[in-house]
Amino acid sequence: MEFVTDLIQWFPDNMWGDAGIIVRTIEHIQISAFSVVVAAVFAIPPAMFLAHRRIGAFTAVTAVNIGRAIPSFGVLALALPITIIIARNVPFLSTGLGFFPTFVALFVLALPPMFANTYTGIAGVDADLVEAARGMGLTSRQILIRIELPVAAPLIVEGIRLSTVQVIATATLGALVAFDGLGRFVINGFSGQDTTQLAGGAILVGLLAIAAELFFAAYLKWGLPRGIRDGVR
Amino acid sequence: MITLTDVTKHYEGATTPAVENLSLTIEEGTITVLVGPSGCGKTTTLKMINRLIEPTSGDITVGGNSVIDRPPHELRREIGYVIQHIGLFPHKTIRKNIATVPHLLGWDAARIAERVDELIELVDLDEEMLDRYPHELSGGQRQRVGVARALAADPPVMLMDEPFGAVDPIVRGKLQDELLDLQRRVKKTIVLVTHDVDEAVKLGDKVAILNIGGVLEQYDSPEVILGSPANDFVRSFLGTDRGLKRLGLFPIETLQLDTGPFVGVGATTAVARSVAQSHNSEWIGVLAEDDTLLGWSPVDSLAVDGVVTEAAERFLSWVDCNDSLRDALEVIISSHTRIAAVLDGGTFKGIVTLDQIYAEIMT
């Protein structure tokens, strides 16, 4: 029971300050959001265009599977020496520890779900819809923007959701390479055999992931046009 | 008017062309049906008109202008297009679906709104449908929306690729009637593809029968094609019930109707018996004072001396004067009286007999 009361007390005691829960949470959200957004920019537009032109399906799937097979911890371990070398030659990146390698690992992790879902979403748009659109005189670009993207939206958003939740969970490992965020509590609690801190950090990461899930669930429930939301076609 | 001149489509890798040297003139304001077995290139031919498929060689003109000279998307905005599965955009309301082409053409909002209201009425749908989404409509309703969407910018030409293939037979028949009714009002140049001969002869002012490889076997009115098929291919494609199909093209109105063994209510039974006898009939039909049909009675059951006051049996074998000779034949062969009474609304016009239909087949 003592553990539970300690744990409950841990949250208010560590809420504020430079290394408090608020600051660590903001750091965690920052790196997660940044990684997902950058990865989205690199994953979604290429997937859109490839799928629109129905090219590279095999290559796309293979690349995605390889991406999925690499464990995130491995990416982090691989990224670290590379980022250190890069950082040595790029002045403003300072040491090559902390944010940079964590970001690289999360970026790589976030790519495959968004790429795969965007590709399958757009390539899977009913051929009749596309033919009707072409037959009515929509240009290729108008078909992509006005028809394929909105119809594939649920799958694309689902891909972003998968990436985001994975990134939030994995950002915890950033503490191993001197990034802070909520992982700091977990790693410090682990190395200092401070179970309260360890559990507190883990709970916070879990809550953040759940919050992200809820955000996307809300979008899929209320943010889509009615015809897509409950359309069966 | 649409003309195809020596049009050939040779798909890459195919050993034989899908369509070879096809020339066809499609008259303005008519429904022209392209029909044939699968592989006859009918859909390919249709899609070459709006350049969804590019012809390998030859020329196609719509309204006097070659389609090849124009950017495809601009050409397509001037040609209505309806496909089997309609392809309504699921994320857009019916209103927005219908407004697709006017929107692309940059019409202002007021003009689009006015046109959409006009169209929804034209295809006989309720205005409240406009704010629904496609999945909330039945198959038949979606089909009508598809037609409204194709007609939105009032294109002179409409292409329809098996438009009624995905609905059940009852709805299909109804939609076909609606299309004919619509065409009477809008007078578009419609090119329709189907594999269904019955649909072709029902809808087409002209029917083009295509054979494998886009060979045009016969191109004429359904009456002529059914009456004198050009060759064995056409004959076998039309099927063994060619005569029956042809009967389906003639409305009963065209016949000189026989009066039949009918008397007005209040006639003496003696008169009724002699009328029946003169028609060599064992029954007598009874009409009310306003010429509506009351029914029939067996001659045996008439009183020896008296007046006809009522009919013993309801008259079941009747057709409307707008029905076809095929409908009349159907009624005749399944009735006891071996005739079909012809009604206009409720009013008795006369009767059709098997002999009359037979005479019609012979002409």
Write structural notes for this entry.
The complex is a heterodimer of chains A (233) and B (363). Chain A has 233 residues and is mainly alpha-helical. Chain A has a single domain, classed as Orthogonal Bundle (MetI-like fold), CATH 1.10.3720.10. Helices cover 78% and strands 0% of the residues of chain A. Chain A is built from ten helices and no strands. Chain A has helices at residues 2-13, 21-52, 57-69, 72-89, 99-123, 127-135, 140-170, 183-191, 195-223, 226-229. In chain A, helix 2 packs antiparallel against helix 7, helix 4 crosses helix 5 (99-123) and helix 6 runs antiparallel to helix 7 (140-170). The longest helix of chain A is centred in the N-terminal third of the chain and has 32 residues, at 21-52. Chain A starts with a helix and ends with a helix. The relative contact order of chain A is 0.14. Chain B has 363 residues and is an alpha/beta fold. Chain B folds into two domains: 2-244, P-loop containing nucleotide triphosphate hydrolases (Rossmann fold, 3-Layer(aba) Sandwich); 252-362, CBS-domain. Chain B has 14 helices and 16 strands. In chain B, the strands form four sheets. Chain B has a six-stranded mixed β-sheet with strand order 6-7-8-3-9-10, sandwiched between helices. In chain B, helix 5 crosses helix 6. The mean pLDDT of chain B is 90. Chains A and B meet through helix 6, helix 7 and helix 10 of A and helix 2 and helix 4 of B.
